[in-house]
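**Archive record**
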Amino acid sequence: MLFLQTAKHSPESCPRHNETVNKVFESFNANLGALLKKYGIKMVGGWALTQEHTMVMIFDAPDPNAMFNFMKDPETGAWQSYQIIKTRPVITMEAAMKMLK
C-alpha cells in the first residue's frame, strides 16, 4: 500500500538554519532505515522542495496500521515536532486507470 507524505516546516525551523532542529533531523535520518525495517515499510523515494521548505516522500507499507505505527513511534514523533506532516494513501496512475474501466 502506497502512502504520499509531505513534510513542511517554517523558514525559522529549517534544519539548515536551526541547530536544535538540525540535531533532531540528523538523528531521524540516521535511524530512518532501522525504523522503516521495524515496521516493514520501504521508502520508494523522497524529494526536497528546498525553496518551499517541503519534503515529499512515497512509502510502501504492508497496511495502514504499519504506517500509523511508524508515524506514532517516538523517534518519528520528534521529527514531526517542528513541521506539519500530511500522510495520504495513494494508488498508481495505472491502478486508477483500471478503476475507470
